[in-house]
User: Fold this.
Amino acid sequence: MKYAKTKEILNQAVADITQLIMVVRQQHWYMRGAEFLKLHPYLDEVMDELDEQRDLVAERLITIDGSPYSSLQEVLEHTKIEAHPGEWGVSTRERFATIIAGYRYLEHLYEEGIKASDEEGDYGSNDILTSCHTAIDKRIWMMQAQIGEAPKIDE
Ligand SMILES: [Fe+2]
Assistant:
């Protein structure tokens, strides 16, 4: 089967992006504090970008004869991003740290996908994964800056 490893990673990304959107949504709903009016809408923008990436990745998977996960059941069975019930009283810094941890995981997954698609000669997926990876890197920079940290690309 052509592009087997790439397909596996694309579908893993579909599950993980879906879970990550829920993680961001939780922080968007539960955040309180001085910067709420700025950060609450910022997280809408973050979720829109993730949703666009998920659609790109899933549709690329279909384009190469794959079948993206499309139920919450499948997402829960496959995602490697943890989620917990929402909690009040968590600092904005901790909320961003939670989101950034999910972003770092996704960044590494995209890297694996970039390498696999390169090895398998799937240049279309390689192009999509590279652009998604670059956008995720930029988000990590911005969210790290929000909590007063350097991007820390070695983490
Ligand atoms: Fe909202």
Notes: The pocket of fe (ii) ion is lined by residues 28, 44 (CB under 6 Å). The mean pLDDT is 97. The first helix runs from residue 4 to 30.
